[in-house]
Amino acid sequence: MTEPDRDVVVVGAGAAGLTAATRLRAAGLSVLVLEARDRVGGRLWTQDVDGATLELGGQWVSSDQTALIETLDELGLETYERYREGESVYVGPDGTSTRYTGEMFPVPPATEAAIDALVERLEALVAQVDPDRPWEHPDADALDRVSFEAWLAEQTPDQEARDNVALFIAGAMLTKPPHAFSALQALLMAASAGSFSNLVDPDFILDRRVVGGLQSVPLRLAERLGDDVRLGQPVREIAWSDVGALVRTPDLAVRARHVVLAVPPVLYSRISYSPPLPRRQHQLHQHLSMGLVIKVHAVYETPFWRDLGLSGTAFGPYEVCHEAYDNTLHGDPRGTLVGFVSDRNADDLFALDADERRERILTSMSHYYGPQTLEPSVYYESDWGSEEWTRGAYAASFDLGGLHRYGPDLRTPVGPIRFACSDLAGLGYQHVDGAIRMGALVADQIVQTEKHRTERTR
């Protein structure tokens, strides 16, 4: 089926694509959004599982995420604070569980001093990094040649200090082992949140949630776009030239002057391009890969940990489940914990059958909260690595040397094709805030291009 021509075709109905489409339509341009899935939202997905409403993908809002906050306000969506009253729990290298308050883990004084020194050094470097252009840091080449693990080892011999600092960037954010990405990539991750301290402070970065779930953002944007959002339409071919493109799915074909690829970069190769993308793009995309994480949802009849004086916040860099939080739904009398298992631990657990995997994960979580953790009424594992149209979580990052070598061309248009997703963001990298920023940026670039085109044809 041939669709009427559009000014812009947007591939992907996540936050980036729908933000771009909304801004383009507001500027008077005609838009068609093509989404491979049978739903909108991309890596945002709020779902009912066995009677419990769970956020299977992204869910948190922090105070620095101004693009997201403005969008929530514009859409009339309300937020609520993550529960954080009571003590947190830390499980150290010997398996000892310790309750604590404040930001610093309860570690030996020498390790605390080593952590402070590492954070001070990181903060000094992060302050020199422009998250939109990290490759311009004066030592970018050298920082991109050394793994984050090796860089940490150069700073201190204290293994526990290194493991705790690595936890927040490797396990909690990039969801890759710290030997698999560079120190420069780590600095970008921190700079994208404004500072390393912001990145590691759960009361900052995991501040609030959206009533009804964060998928409400793309759902409401899609409602406004109506029939200009088509689901179940995986784009298979883009035939392009300098003046436009023909975009094909198995069911339809549409011509447009501009195309926005608003999907993770690991999916670009799922599309055939005629002519092929330039060599630079082919090489660039091969050096980007997704991390791997299991997001674990455990629902209980009551939030029993609160009666124990616990906030639900827990960390254990040596645990299968390296971090966990109170994730109780707004207005729900039940209690929900959310935990995370990343990179090599996730690989190991996926080699097990489902029952054994569940047992291993809940046993690890019980080290934080006690034996009641072992018997949830609802249990669910979000596995984005098995999602055909995502293939990992939370976002794509470069291998060693890739960011300095290829970063400047991450957003470079190819003819009429532009790229927009949270994986390419500076501020808000990996987060919905970054997706919204990228969607808005690309939309504004297209609007300016159209204005210049109109002026030339007058």
UniProtKB/TrEMBL annotation:
Keyword line: Oxidoreductase
Ranges where the Amine oxidase domain occurs: 16-446
SUPFAM superfamilies found in the cross-reference section: FAD-linked reductases, C-terminal domain, FAD/NAD(P)-binding domain
Sequence similarity: Belongs to the flavin monoamine oxidase family.
One family name in Pfam for this protein: Amino_oxidase
Requisite cofactors: FAD
Lineage: Bacteria, Bacillati, Actinomycetota, Actinomycetes, Propionibacteriales
Organism (species): Aeromicrobium alkaliterrae
The protein's name: NAD(P)/FAD-dependent oxidoreductase
Domain of life of the organism encoding this protein: Bacteria
